[in-house]
Amino acid sequence: MRHYPPEFKADAVALYRSRPGATIKSVAADPGVNTETLRNWIRAADGRRPGSHSPAQPTAPAPDPAEVTALRKRARELEEERDILRKAARYFATETHW
User: Fold this and answer.
1) What is the mean pLDDT of the chain?
2) What pLDDT shows up at residue 97?
3) Per-residue exposure over 44-81, b if at least 16 CB sit within 10 Å of its own CB, e if not
4) pLDDT digit of tens for each residue in the chain (98 aa)?
5) Euclidean distance between CA atoms 56 and 46, whole angstroms
6) pLDDT at residue 31, as a whole number
7) Nearest-CA neighbor of 9 among 27, 68, 72?
8) What is the pTM of this model?
9) How far is Cα 98 from Cα 86, in angstroms, rounded to an integer?
10) What pLDDT digit, counting tens, does each position of 71-80 carry?
11) Residues 6 or more apart from 55 whose CB is under 8 A from it?
12) How far apart are CA 25 and CA 55, in angstroms?
């Protein structure tokens, strides 16, 4: 198993990204690395674990309690407005039928 310096890995990833539409296989042949090796370097540069297909899960900051309270209040207000509009729509729908 060969070990590559970080600069070489970064250059190979940059080479892949500089060629839109190019396949990993075609780009890996240029610097002479294995296709899966380059794929893993690209995933690592994107913040994903090698071998995974989804991004790494970043840890979310703890929500601000005051902001959560304000958002819940706003959600209640919007739900009330929606209910009023639904009732008005039902009223006018029955009123306009002959």
Assistant:
1) 86
2) 63
3) eeeeeeeeeeeeeeeeeeeeeeeeeeeeeeeeeeeeee
4) 678 999 999 999 999 999 888 899 999 988 889 999 999 999 999 887 666 565 555 567 888 989 999 999 999 999 999 999 999 999 998 887 66
5) 9
6) 83
7) 27
8) 0.49
9) 21
10) 999 999 999 9
11) 46, 47, 48
12) 22
Q: Per CATH, is 6-45 categorized as 1.10.10.60?
A: yes
pLDDT at site 21: 86
Picking from 45, 51, 58, 55, the residue whose alpha carbon sits closest to that of residue 10 is 45
Residue 88 tokens read as 């008005």
Distances (CA, A) of 1 to 4, 40, 76, 96, 98: 10, 14, 59, 78, 82
